[in-house]
Design brief:
By secondary structure, this protein is mainly alpha-helical. It folds into 2 domains: 46 residues; 52 residues. The chain has a two-stranded antiparallel ribbon. The protein starts with a strand and ends with a helix.
Length: 99
């Protein structure tokens, strides 16, 4: 949507031009839209960090308990390692976001 405001300068022959204050308003509205988009992306990427971290800890504990009773298979060991890495990244991201 474009709003045109009449310009009262003689050299413009009465043409309509965008007023500088209107341009500032448009920029402000674009930043609001960007802020909303970033918040949505942040929630998608990092939303519910605590829940994801809690779930990873449960899965790691479950594998640890299984490892105390039985010998873990290679893919279970790899899975445990990858869960630790993911947990570390989540906790690190949380620290960066809230520091």
């Amino acid at each position: 949507m474009t709003i045109l405001i009449p310009c009262y300068h003689q050299n413009l022959n009465g043409d309509y031009v965008k007023h500088p204050l209107f341009q500032q308003h448009v920029l402000k509205e674009k930043f609001k839209g960007l802020k909303i988009s970033i918040k949505g992306w942040q929630k998608e990427e990092y939303g519910e960090l605590e829940e994801k971290a809690r779930k990873l800890v449960e899965e790691i504990v479950e594998l640890d308990q299984k490892g105390e009773v039985l010998v873990l298979e290679d893919e279970e060991i790899q899975s445990r390692k990858s869960k630790f890495v993911e947990l570390w990244q989540l906790l690190k991201a949380r620290d960066v976001m809230f520091s």
